[in-house]
Design goal:
The protein is built from 2 helices and 19 strands. The chain is mainly beta. Strand 13 and strand 14 form a beta hairpin. It folds into 2 domains: 154 residues, Thiol:disulfide interchange protein DsbD, N-terminal domain (Immunoglobulin-like, Sandwich), CATH 2.60.40.1250; 98 residues, Immunoglobulin-like (Sandwich).
Length: 276
């Protein structure tokens, strides 16, 4: 009996010494085949908060990346009803390419968490994060979905460790910035433009595994067909080629910045390249 009593007292003392893990995710906001909610994080030394958008999908459903490919709807975020928020940056985990009814799209098959960096107007005060989102959910056909969620971020009420683990895993899957020609198993080695061709084109040499994909983005109003592997290149690397077509009339190529995302077995990297 005394041993049991000592165990109970010890357990209560341990609970009293533990932090108050009290900040929970927002309730789910459901749509056909999908649901979203906001995940709380912690505040960093610079005052910015970590948080996340969790998208839950029914079996066999997909949703889309910021550049969805041949079809699909990229998510649109509205944070205007938030309080004490100066800026919200959405970070994008490495996507995959999949076939749908209108060609090939880029996004996520199954559940995904989009990490957030939330910058408060006053880092000493709590934040109320309010999201209105429009996004695409796709199974046999793609349907527009909407959701709303509100979440309080307060330093006096940290989230459960399980939520912090989920956010950390999502952050690790975001492509890391990398310069052209960097060392390692995954790298954009060189970009060779041919702007005099009809249509203009690019060749991109990469170091990557055989199943790696390359995604190329330009200006916000550009549509770029995704590059395709075109055999090997010098030094055992792989080459992707891309035609710069489908651009708005009068689009200026010279000096435009391209974002190259390379996704492979070794992870994902993101490289910027400015057209000459």
């Amino acid at each position: 009996m005394f041993a049991l009593l000592r165990s109970v007292v010890a357990a209560l003392a341990l609970l009293a010494a533990s932090p108050a893990w009290g900040s929970d995710p927002s309730p789910w906001s459901t749509a056909h085949g999908a649901a979203i909610r906001l995940l709380p994080g912690v505040q960093g030394e610079g005052g910015a908060w970590r948080a996340g958008i969790e998208i839950r999908l029914d079996s066999g459903w997909k949703t889309y990346w910021r550049t969805p490919g041949d079809s699909g709807l990229p998510p649109v975020f509205d944070w205007s009803r938030s309080a004490n928020v100066a800026d919200v940056a959405v970070l994008w985990p490495a996507p995959e390419r999949f076939a749908d009814g209108a060609g090939e799209s880029v996004g996520y098959v199954g559940d995904v968490v989009l990490p957030l960096k939330v910058v408060p107007r006053d880092a000493r005060k709590p934040v109320e994060l309010s999201l209105s989102i429009q996004y695409g959910a796709c199974k046999d056909i793609c349907v527009p979905a909407t959701g709303e969620a509100t979440l309080a971020l307060d330093a006096s009420s940290p989230p459960p460790r399980s939520i912090l683990h989920v956010l950390a895993e999502a952050e690790r899957s975001v492509p890391r910035p990398q310069k052209i020609g960097a060392e390692g198993p995954l790298s954009v080695l060189a970009v060779v433009p041919d702007l005099a061709a009809k249509p203009p084109g690019l060749a991109v040499d990469v170091r990557a595994d055989a199943d790696a994909i390359l995604l190329v983005e330009g200006n916000a109003d550009w549509y770029l067909p995704q590059p395709r592997p075109k055999g090997g290149a010098a030094g055992g690397s792989r080459r992707f080629t891309l035609a710069l077509e489908g651009l708005p009339k009068g689009a200026e190529l010279a000096g435009a910045e391209l974002r190259l995302t390379l996704v492979g077995a070794a992870g994902a990297v993101e490289t910027t390249y400015t057209l000459p």
